[in-house]
Each structure stands twice: as C-alpha cells, then as structure tokens.
Amino acid sequence: MSNLTKFRRTQQWLTFARLWYLYDATYQDVFDSAIVIAQYLRGMNKPIYDHVRQDVGNHVVVINTSKVSMPVDEWKWRMYSHHSRYGGGQTWAAAHELHSKDPTIVLYKAVYKEVGSAPRAVNLIRSPTMARLHLFPDACIPPEIKANICDQIRQVQPVLKSLKDYSEEEVEKFPKIVDYPEDYVVK
Amino acid sequence: MATILRNVNAAKNIRDLLKKSIEHCTRSERGLKRWQVDTLRVMYWRAQSYDAIPHPERHRREWQNWNYKSELFAFSQRLSEKFSEEMLRVCFTDKSYVEKEDEQRKELGMPEIELRTENNSELAAIGTNKLTPFIKSYLRYFLKNVPEECISAVHNYLMSDTVLADIASKIGCTQLILCNAINPSDEVKAQVLRALIGALMKEKGEKHTEKFIIDFILTYINDQDIMEVWNLPQAEIALSNVLKNNGITEYEPRLLRESGRNTIYACFMVGMYVDKKLIGFGSGETVSIAREMAAYDALRRMFKLTPASTLFKFGKDAYNIDFGSSSQEYSLLNEWKLLDLDRKHQLKSIS
Amino acid sequence: MVQLTQVLCKYMPKWVPRFRGSNKSFMRKQHLLSLCGHLYGRKRNCFRIARRALYRTFEISQDKRREKKVFFRDLFTQRINSACAEHDLQYKYFITILPQLNVELDRKILSSLAIWEPRTFKSLVELVKAKRCEEGIDEAARNATPPAGVITRGML
C-alpha cells in the first residue's frame, strides 16, 4: 500500500488549493490595499506560508480600480517615471494623469512594489505572483473568472457615502443643527 | 570514484582514459598530473581484469566463514525465542530445496541415502490455522463498529504474501532460507514466517504464539489507515445501503465550498447531510471525486475508523486481553446497523 | 584538484613529488586547500589567495548563522499571525496573553501546531479570547462574547 492514499491525496489537494479572492477597491486607499492584496497573492494568509521553498499564493480579483483613492494631495504629487532607454528619454507623469490613461495601473504598480523586490528568491517568484492578480476598472468581471471566486477580502477602510447617494427623504430627515435665517439668501 | 570507473570501462585506450578521467580529477583542464597517471593506470588494469567481468550473484553460504548453525542460534536469540535447532532447520527448508537436492543426487548417480525430506509446508499449515482466527478476533476486539467485510479485508492484507514477506525479511529470515533460488521470492518468505508460527505452536503452546503474533505481525497495522486497507469500492452506493438498513432513506450531498472552478487546479468540497446534519465531508479536484470522498468520510465516521478512534493495543497491554470473547462474526455490510437504538442521535453532526 | 584526507596523506605513495623542507607545511596547505574546492578561480588553487578567501567565507557563514535565527523567527511569527487572523484574533494579543495563562509554548511549536494540529491551535486561541473577555482590557474585549467551552475560575 502506497503512502499517498486516496484520503491523503485529496487532503493534500485541499491544503494547497489556490483560492480566488475578490476585492472591491471602491474608495479604498491604493497603498493600504496594495499591502493587503500582496499578502493574499503571496499566500501570507495561510499558516503553511513559506518564505522561499513553497509557492502557496492565491488569486486576487480586484474590481472598481477606477474608484481607488489616495490620501490628501497624493494624486497631484506622486510621480511615476518611465524611461524609453534613449538619451533624454525619461518622462514623468503624475498619478492622476496615469490613472486617467489606464485606471488599473496605479494599483498594479503599488502591488508590484509590495510583492517584494530585494531578495533574489522573491525576484524569481514575482512575475508568477503578479500574474495571479486580475484587475478590472469597473464591476464587470468575465463570467469564466467570476465562477472561480470563492471568498472576498475585507476592505481596508469603510466606504463613505457621498451626498448624491442619499435619497431626498434621508437628507430631509437628517437632524439639522441650525436653520437658515429667513432673510438668508442662498446663492 | 564511481564516475571514473564508469569512464574506465568506456575508454578504448589509456590515453583516452586519461583525457576523460582528468576532468573528474581536476575539475578543470590545467594539465596532467604525473602522480595521477600511475593511479589511473593501476585502476585501468584492475578494471580490465576484475571489474569488467560479470560476476555471478552468490549466496552468503558460499563464503567460507558461513556457519549456518550459529546463524540459526543468533536468529532465535534476536527474537528472544528459544526455538530448538531441529525445528528451525525445518522451518527454513522450503519444498523447492528438497526437490532440488533430490535431483542433484540423481544426476550425480549417488546411492539413495535416507534424505532429509522434511520441509516447512506442514508447519506453515499449522501456523495459518492459528493466524487466521487470532488475527480476526484481535481486529474484532478493537474495531467494534465495522462490518465483517472490513475485518476480512484487513485480515487478508495482513496475511498477504507481500506483508508477511516484508515482516520475514525485517526479522532477518532472508539469508537463512534454504530454497532453489538465491533470493527467495515473497511466497517462500511468507511460507517461512507461517512455519515459524507453526513451530512456536508446537513447541511453546498457544498463549506464547499469540504474544508473538501481536508483537511481530499485528504491529504492522499500527498507524495505517484501516479504510484505505479495506479499499471499499463505490463508497456512495455503500453509504446509501447502510443508511437504508438503518431506516434512513434520504441523504443529501451538498457543495460546501469551491474555488477555481474553471482552472486546472479546481478544488471542491462536498458535505453529506442527513436530516440537515452534516455527517461527513470530502474534497477533490472534481465534484464527483469530492462527493465520493464525502461518502467515504461519512462511512469512516460511522464505522469509527477515524485515526483518533482506532486505537490498537500492542505489547504488554495486549498480552492479557482475552481475544477469544470476540470470535463471533459481525454482520455483513448489507445487514450492518448502528449500535445504538436511537440511530439518528448517533449520526452526530460534525462541528 | 583532488585532495586526500589526512589519513590517506600519511600513506601517500613514494612517487608523490616531495617538497623541499619538511613535509609538514605541505600537508598543512593541502588541508586548507581541501576546504576551498567550491571557490572560483585561483581562490581554490593558490594557497595565499585561497587562505584569504577561506577566512572570508568563515566570516560570512558566521554572520549567516546569526541571520538564520532571525529568519526563522520571522517565518514562525508570520505563520502564527496568519493562523490567528483565521480566528479573528490579533497576533500581539495571542503572543502576550498565552504566557500569562502559563502556556509556555514558543513560536516554533505554535506555528507547527497551527499547521499540523489546527484544532489544538483553535483551542489556544479560544483560551486567549476568554482571558481577554474576562479582563476587559479595551472596548472591543469588553463587548465581545466569551467563547463557549472555556471554563474559567469565576465559573467554578
């Protein structure tokens, strides 16, 4: 009788199964969510996680990447550089410019950084790890990918509602602290 | 060294040889060392004269310092059993060995002296007669909730030639066996072990033999998955039959979890429900495999064959147990029923 | 370069070229060179360069031996962290409260429990949760319901 029995084989399959997680990036900080996503991509959420020897990473499907947020003035001041490999070929683009061109690239670059760079072992696993990241600018996911998803990742911060999202009734019901004086002219 | 020798055989002449072996010796081609040449030359001629010739496999007894009598003595000392030497000789004599000796004598035209025609087949028969009921009653004593098929399957596994031969070789029987081949086959080894037990029955009695069987043969199932040894085919059909016998007509397999459905590493987990209670779950790469494993798991829990609940006793703990009380056969799988009268309570939900 | 062991060196054949002076220094050099087989270039053949390179490798390996401990401690921490997250407990509470309960297991054992005996690990986590509820250190701990099945002193 071999050591790998029917029961143990399926148990092994279950332990090392690659899981598919969903992450909704609506109104989420890019850099904070990148840390969480990178952890899931590398399989750091599993107790069997290993630095080097074993790749136990998961898939992460991120939706609504066009709605990601950055703290304060970060959209304006964060610069992304690109070099064309010719003399004087380096160009810079602000985060908001890049985001308007491709709504997934800001999150992609943030995750790419978080997945790790320095040790050689990490460098080798980085491209297959990044290949397991699926980014979508809106909530539309292809049905073949949607069928794979098994779980979701908790968002890093609560989703704030804008005034537009409240109905008129809710706005009227909201307790007012002061009333405008009768002679106050609203512009 | 092995790589050099391999090259020695392949090389046509000594110059060729030196070129090839120098790579292994120096790890870099930086000239030829004078002191290597002599060594390699000796090695080359040795390879031509000795290593290149295929030597036939020889039994240990063909060497001069082989003493069969002392080996037999050492064997019984190893097991701390006091076999008589005569009995041990019979145990280790296979039928094929006697036949071979007969033929050789006839070929040589030797006069017919009274030959030793005893072989181990009689003793083996005695051993088998003891082994079969004892193993079964031992298993029945510790596995209380299983059908008879399981008991006989585990018994057949333990009595199979491969297992007995493995045990025989591990207690050092291989070189002591007298048979017509140099390396005895599994059948021969198993026969010898059975004969050893038969010899113990004759010399030491029943109680002592039982201790021997517990120590050397039944320990083989320690840490083994009994369900896997049983290898129950078509678990789901078996589960539905078992539930029907217990008055439960309906069970429901449900998909508990799944991931990566459209990928090659899809993983599914299926649970088996009776009366909205989870009685077992299993996983697999397809739904059908997971379903089969769920039924398998439910049966395992019903028969109490989980690793935590199958606790055999060996050694001193088991010597004084009266296994004769459990010689009665269990019911077959088709008629098997849960022990408790209130069966639905026994089908506990898994937390 | 083939290096002989010290025992074999003693019984070297007569045709091995002898060095001027004593054989002792030759043996000493051979012994050092035998440790340099894995190095690159002249570091493994020339004694003076080999000696320097070898001492350098000793230094490096000493550093790595220290780093190894940190490396594994980080790995165990990471594993316990993820196992705690599965049960919705923070690592810092788990690792500080366990010794207060006289459960003196180190990170290595805890991480292997998390992998091989998840039920045992879960019971440890529940123990910690019950302790946190009992003490009521912060807001979250006071509001949480204590896990079932943990018997504390107050109950008896």
Give your account of this protein's structure.
The complex is a heterotrimer of chains A (187), B (351) and C (156). Chain A is α/β, with parallel strands linked by helices. Chain A is 36% helix and 13% strand. Chain B has three domains: 2-51, no CATH class; 68-221, Orthogonal Bundle (Ribonuclease iii, N-terminal Endonuclease Domain, Chain A), CATH 1.10.1520.10; 226-311 and 321-346, Double Stranded RNA Binding Domain, CATH 3.30.160. Chain B has helices at 2-10, 14-26, 34-51, 68-78, 85-92, 95-108, 121-142, 148-159, 161-170, 186-204, 206-216, 226-230, 235-245, 287-302, 316-319, 343-346; strands spanning 252-259, 267-274, 277-284. In chain B, a hairpin with a 7-residue loop joins β1 (252-259) and β2 (267-274). Chain C folds into two domains: 6-63, no CATH class; 70-155, Ribosomal protein L20, C-terminal domain (c-terminal domain of poly(a) binding protein). Chain C has helices spanning 6-10, 23-33, 47-86, 91-100, 107-116, 118-135, 139-143. Chain C is mainly α. Classes of the chains: A alpha/beta (187), B mainly alpha (351), C mainly alpha (156). Chains in contact: A-B, A-C, B-C. The interface between A and B is medium-sized, with 21 and 25 residues. Chain B: InterPro entries: dsRBD_dom, Ribosomal_mL44_DSRM_metazoa, RM44_endonuclase, RNase_III_dom, RNase_III_sf. Chain B: Residues 268-304 form the DRBM domain. Chain B: This is Large ribosomal subunit protein mL44.
In terms of topology, how is this protein built?
The complex is a heterotrimer of chains A (187), B (351) and C (156).
Chain A: H1 6-15, E1 20-24, H2 30-42, E2 59-63, H3 74-77, E3 79-83, E4 90-94, H4 95-101, H5 105-115, H6 120-131, E5 133-135, H7 143-146, E6 151-152, H8 168-173
Parallel strand pairs in A: 1-2, 1-6, 2-5
Antiparallel strand pairs in A: 3-4
Helix pairs in contact in A: 2-5
Chain B: H1 2-10, H2 14-26, H3 34-51, H4 68-78, H5 85-92, H6 95-108, H7 121-142, H8 148-159, H9 161-170, H10 186-204, H11 206-216, H12 226-230, H13 235-245, E1 252-259, E2 267-274, E3 277-284, H14 287-302, H15 316-319, H16 343-346
Antiparallel strand pairs in B: 1-2, 2-3
Helix pairs in contact in B: 1-2, 2-3, 5-10, 7-8, 7-10, 9-10, 10-11, 13-14
Chain C: H1 6-10, H2 23-33, H3 47-86, H4 91-100, H5 107-116, H6 118-135, H7 139-143
Structural category of chain C is mainly alpha
Helical content band of chain C: 55-70%
Assembly classification: heterotrimer
Structural class of chain B: mainly alpha
What's the rounded overall pLDDT mean of chain C? 87
* CATH fold call of the largest domain in chain C: c-terminal domain of poly(a) binding protein
Cα(first) to Cα(last) distance of chain B is 60 Å
Biggest protein-protein contact in the assembly: A-B, 21 and 25 residues
Strand content of chain B: 5-15%
What is the CATH topology of the largest domain in chain B? Ribonuclease iii, N-terminal Endonuclease Domain, Chain A
DSSP strand tally of chain B:
3
Outline of chain B: flat
Protein name (chain A): Putative ribosomal protein L13-like protein
Keywords (chain A): Ribonucleoprotein, Ribosomal protein
Family (chain A): Belongs to the universal ribosomal protein uL13 family.
InterPro entries (chain A): Ribosomal_uL13, Ribosomal_uL13_bac-type, Ribosomal_uL13_sf
